[in-house]
Fold this protein.
Amino acid sequence: MEENREQEVDLQHYLRVLFKWRWVACILFALVVFFTTIYNFTTTPLYESSARLLIEKENPNLVSIQEVMAVDASGQDYYQTQYQIIQSRAVARAVIERLDLASSEEFFPKPKDHFIAQFHHWMKQSIADAKQWATALLKTPDDRSMAEDASEADSALVSSFINRITVSPIRNSRLVDVSVQAKDPKQSARMANALVRAYIDQNLEAKLGAAKDGVKWLGERMEEERTKVETAEFALLKYKEENQIITDFSSDVEMITAQKIAQINTQVLEAESARVEAETRYQQALALEQSPEMLDSIPEVLSNDIVKQIKKMEVDLYNRMSELSNKYGRNHPQMQAIESELADLKKRKITEARRVVSSLKNQYKLALARESSLKEALERQKSENLLLNKKAIQFSVLKRQAESARQMYELLVKRFKETSLTEEMKTGNIRVVDHAEVPKYPVSPNKKRNTLLAVVIGLMLGVGAAFLLDYLDNTIKLPEEIKEHLDIAYLGPIPAFTPRENPDDIPEDLVALHSPKSTASESFRGIRTGILFSSADIAPHVILVTSAGPGEGKTVCAANLAIAMAQSGSRVVVLDCDMRRPRAHKVFNVSREIGLSNVLVGSGSLKDAIVPTQVENLDLIPSGPIPPNPSELLGSKRMQLILAALRKKYNRIIIDTPPITAVTDAVVMAQAVDGVVLVIRAGETPRQLVQNGLAQLQSSKAHILGAVLNGVHTGRDSYYYYQYYYYYYGEDGQKQKKTRQKKKHKGTYA
């Protein structure tokens, strides 16, 4: 429920703001709508014609020269580039020349005969002359020429034409609409068609120009490549002659050479192994040659046939000797003959063994010679192979150079023929889908849209200005602001009223006396009740009425509040302590010859200073003559004695003091009273001023009873129209509707 209540209060606040600043909002709204309406009916209508183009991604492949002519249109950047080309100055100049727009009334209209048009033309011409004169002052006479003037005029025409162009791509397609605006519908269609035609022609000319440049460039490169081919082939032929190369170096030749090296290498390994083996056998035999009895252990000796026969013969002789030794003695001739034969066989065996050793030596030397021979052959083959490789590498380099030069030359010849053929072709990747037609209705100004926008913008500006002005207004206007910014009690409002004369000679400011049934009188009675019930234990006896600044109506409020208290039966005295600009005596229409200042300085008695008023139970002590030191007098001990004497005689003492921020009188008196009532002029007193005055009172330990809002307007545009005195009781006691029209006034001021 509280949330709903807060939302309702906020809505009422917004409505109050709008009501308060309604004239500002209405004026802004009316101005926006008014000027928009003038614009709608005075602006020259513009017509728009559109032509539709199809921009293909690639060129038609009429010949196989995609590398030269193909357009990489796969990316969005290509289309953005084309859109910018359509709006380029080069294309615009082409259209201007084709349609002779430099002499067209579309861009250079003739001045009309009526006065407004002539005046407008005169103003434009005067401004142009002034600019030209100012520019001429900054330059020497030779700096500007007729050619420059013509160039500037042409540039302005081109810029004006480009500003009328609109390029609108159609989403998810390769189509684009090119629109041109003009005052004449037929002229807009002509310009749109001329624009797309100029764009297509420029695109074709650019491609054909590229083809011509390509033909020229290819012709020059062909001559260069032909020279390179001749040079490369001559170098290859010369190298073959110098190195006696008959056939090309193929992979078979390299394979045969590698096989030869492999075979020789294998033979070297075998010869090396055979040499090591022969050397080993020879070294073993050579070691045993010095011991004849050990020669038999040499394998080659053992395997020798002659040695085998000798050994067999020795075996036979030993067998025979064994037989004869049993018959004959050692010295027998047969035994000696056998021993002689054995000795001969032994010599023969030693001789044969040495011959075998000599044979092993020859085998070793032969193996060593064969190994050396094969190694030399391997080194020769390697050297020949390295030399052959060097020749092959140089030969391959020269051959590749010749082949590359020839291939480049043949490719250039092919491209030259294709590009020469392309020069004669007029085709592109852009074509017109729909030509521009003459429009029937203008596109600008759009009166319905402009009017709707004017209404919306006018409302937004009006409402925004109202809330901005209300935000900038830092005055206190509502009771909620008193509680929020001042944190003191709110005693009630005092509606604005117009002082008026009455037949009973009652002072006009005393509304509570001459109009007791009025809204203002009821307000003072409500404030009286709020003050009397502001303290829980006892009602305040001495009440000080002051304000933060001058002109907030504190004196009138104090007087009428005193009347309301006196009408309730209390004895009340109004004490005018404003000894700087006293006004209470004027409100009650009495003299101030003898007053409070006389009593304070001792030139008069308190009894003589008290003046009876027209109100029963209400007396007034005027300020008296203005003294030079009001603050010292009000803060004196004599003033305390005066208040003590008045407390005994009166039920309520209402003290009127100067503004808080102006002088210190109110702060001095605030320490001697039971409570302080702060008067705030609604919608006029700045918040900071009230806060400063309140801070001074609080620093002096004054008891703040609360604040009243003075000069509150209760009309239909006011906050109080919704929750306060819309009805009041008439003099006859009957409930009557308030019909008095609100006059233009600010209410009563002190």
